[in-house]
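hey can u check if this looks right to u? its 549 residues, i copy pasted from the old doc so theres a chance i mangled smth
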Amino acid sequence: MAASKPATAAAAGPHKLEMGAFQPCVWGDFFVTYNPPLSQSSEMTMQERVEQLKVQVRALLEDNKNRSVADVVTLVEMLERLGIGNHFRGEIGTALRHVLNEEPEFPASSDDLHIAALRFRLLRQHGLWVSADETGNFSTSLCSDPVSLLSLYNAAHLATPSEDALSDAIVFSRYHLEAMRNKLRPPMAEQVSCALDIPLPRTVRRLETMHYIKEYEQDESNNGPLLELSRLDFELVRSLHLKELRDLSLWWRDLYDNVKLSYARDRLVENYFWTCSMFHEEEYSRARLMFAKTFGLLSLMDDTYDVHATLEDCYKLNEAIQRWDRRAVSILPKYLHMFYIRLLANFKEFEDTLGPHEKYRVSYAKTAFQSSSEYYLCEAKWSNEKYAPSFKEHLEVSRMSSGFPTLALVLLMGVDNTATNEAFDWAADVPDIVCASGVIAHFLNDIASYKLGKTKKDVASSVECYMKENLVGGQEAIVAISALAEDAWRMINRACMEIEPTLLLAAQLVVNLTRTLEVIYLGGRDGYTFGGDLKGLIAALFLKPIYVV
C-alpha cells in the first residue's frame, strides 16, 4: 500500500508533484450526493424475478448427469464470468467433482484442446488438483486458432513451481496471440487484448462480469435466463455498492476532516473500488464496510510514517499503537492525537458490530495492525539512516509492510461463515498464499515507484537494491523482479490446491485481494496513489448502466 511519490524530473506528465504532496481526490463529494437510479420498489420487483430465474438456472446445473464434460465446463464458465456463480456454489462444486472423476479424453482437435484447457483451468481455480498433462499437447496447428490459444494461455497461468511445460505453453500461446491480435474481430479481439494485459485467472471477477455481459448479449446462442439473471444481479448488487459507498464517503469525510492529516492520500473511492474488486457479493456487505474503513486507517498510518513524521514521531506513534490504550495519546505529537483517538474508536465500533461469538476477530485485526506499524517503523529507520538493505533483507521487511499480511486478517473480520477460528489462525501465521501475495504487492508497487519517481524520504526500492547488487540497469531489474512476482503467483496456485478444504474460501478471498493488484498497478501505474488513473474504470463499474430488458 506504500505510495509512489514522484518528486523528480523523471516523474513526467500529469503525475509530477511537489515533494511529499499527493494529488487531491478526483471525486470530491460526488458519491455523497449521487442518487442511485433504482427505487426500492424497482429493486423488490427485480429481486422477485431473480429468485424465479435462479430456479431455472439451478435446474440446468442439476441436469449434468446427461451432459458431456464440454457442456458442463462451458456452463460453469458462463456462470462464473457472468458473475452469478456465487448463487450456485454447491451445484458448481458437485458438477466440477463429477468432471474431475470423468476420464479425460486426449485432445484430438483444436476444439478438444479448448475444452481440455478450460477443464484444467476451472478445476485448478476451484482448488482441485489436475495434472498439467491434461491440458493436451500444443503444436503449430494452433497458430491460426485464437480460441484454443487463448484457452491454453489462460489455463497455463495456473501453473505451479517447476511446471516447465506450462511455462512453454505461456510463451508459445502469447507469441501467437500477439502476432494475430490486430487481425482479430470482436469479441475475440477484446478477449485477447484483455488477457494479454491480465490473464483470466488473475482478472478481477467484477470487472470481468461487467465486460462479459456486454459480450454475451451479442452472442446469438446466448441462454436467455442466464443473461437476464446476470443483468439483474449486477444492477442489484451495484445499487447496494452505491449505498455502501455513500455511507463510507460520509464516514471518510468526517474522519479525514477531523484528523487533519492533509499530507495523507484522500482515496476513499479508490479504496472501495479495491474492496469491491475483492468481494462484491451481497453477502459480504458487512465485511466490505469493515475492510474499507480499516484500509483507510492503515493508509493514513502508512502515509504518516512514509512522507511526514520525523523519526522521533515514528517511534512515538509505534509505541502508542503497541499500547493500544486511549491514555497513550499523551505521548504523541499533537497532530496525531485525533488520528489515534479515531483509530481506537473505529476498532471498538467493529467489535460492537460483531456478534458475541465473533468479537474475538477484532483482536486478530488489531495485532496485525500493530505488526504493520512495526514494519513501517523499520522502513522509517532505514530512510532516516540512509541505510541500503540487501535485496533479501528488503524483501523480508517489505512483503510485510506491503499491508497484505494485515489485510488478509482484516478481510475475514466481517465475513460470516467463512471466518472460523481456524481461518484466523491460518491467516495470522502468514502462510504461503499470504506471504506470496505480499511479495507481489511489494514488487508491483516498487516497479511503479521506480517508473514514476520517489521522494528523498523514500528508502531504496527493491528495483534499486537489485540494480546495485547485480550491476544491471533499471529495465533489466524490472524484468527480473517481474519474473519473481510470477514465481509468487505460482506459489499461490500451488498453495490453493494443497490447502485444507475448510480453508479454501478464506484462501480464495486472499487470492481475490491479490488479483486487484494486477489492475491497480497495470502497466506500471499506481492507481491508488494517482486516483485519476482509475477514474474511467470506477465510473464504468459504479455508474454506467447494464441495460435490463
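The chain is about 65% helix and 0% strand.
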